[in-house]
Amino acid sequence: MHRLNRSNWTAVLGPGFLSPLMMTAARFQVAVLALCQALAMTTNTVLITTAALIGYALATDKALATLPLAVRQIATMATTIPASLLMQRLGRRNGFLVGTLIGIGGGGIAIYSLAIAHFWLFTLAMGCLGVANSFVSYYRFAAADVADDAWRSQAISWVIAGGVIAAVLGPWLATGSQDWFNSEISDGFLVVYYPHLLVAPAYQGQGIGHQIMTRLKQRYADMQMQMLVADGEAIAFYEKCGFTRAGQTQPMWIYDGDEH
Predict the structure, then answer these.
(1) In this structure, are 173 and 234 located in the same domain?
(2) Is residue 84 classed exposed, middle or buried when 0-12, 13-18 and 19+ CB atoms within 10 A define those classes?
(3) Who contacts 64 (Cβ-Cβ below 8 Å, separation ≥6)?
(4) Which CATH number fits the domain that encloses residue 125?
(5) How many degrees, rounded to 5, is the angle at CA 231 between CA 239 and CA 240?
(6) pLDDT for 202
């Protein structure tokens, strides 16, 4: 028994039978590639916007602040041709999977490096993301591979147009997401309460806590009341930030612990 392939089906059912199905599948693949391009370019925009700031916050020597971003750019340039050779050997699909796995690994390392405030680990993460970015430039060539001659140029344009989405989404994520993980509690009109302000021990005494409180106070400047609870050595810190004891109030709690 012979397996029916594209040529067999065309011979049996006529040349026009598979065209609509193949066109639909090709357009779907191009749409996926365009979405991948948009997400990748969004990542690039966010990293270009924030990497140097993160480097400055993590680096002991502030002159190294832009090193993570530079490592990312160098990694992209150094691995673009090897990425092409790898896809020539493994195929575009497997090559893109390799690039994606490297990007996922780099993202995980970046999250961990921020959690432990480790500059060199963050630099390594940026290098991994740079390698992953070298595969992104081949999305448009993949679109050209799946499209036929009639709309190949349009397919390439679709993928490249993903950058337009990134131009809007990237800056919004870089600036708009800064409040997603805030711990302050507010009714949105009258009162805001700050539960915790924690700075990693290695970065205390550098003015970071004071900058955070300054920005929080500016953000909620229209509130009638900004509140927090302070004890021990923290009292002097918050007094320097402009907080005073709230009248004749008496702190009260139900507390299951022995740290205070």
Answers:
(1) no
(2) middle
(3) 55, 119
(4) 1.20.1250.20
(5) 10
(6) 74
Q: Same domain for 174 and 189? A: no
- Print burial letters for 39-70: b (CB count within 10 Å at least 16), e (below 16): ebbbbbbbbeebbbebbebbbeeeebbebbbb
Domain boundary among 137, 154, 179: 179
Instruction: Name the token pair of 35.
Output: 């979405």
| pTM of the predicted model as reported, rounded to 2 decimal places | 0.62
Blockwise average pLDDT, block size 10, the chain, 260 residues: 46 45 66 78 82 87 91 93 91 89 93 88 94 86 70 71 70 64 72 80 79 83 85 84 83 74
Positive or negative, the CA dihedral 201, 207, 210, 211 is negative
Q: Between the CA atoms of 47, 53, 54 and 58, what dihedral angle is there, to the nearest 10 degrees?
A: 150
| Tokens describing residue 232 | 């021990």
Is 163 within 8 Å of 41 (Cβ atoms)?
yes
Q: How far apart are CA 241 and CA 186, in angstroms?
A: 19
**Do residue 174 and residue 231 come from a single domain?**
no
Where does a domain end: 147, 179, 211?
179
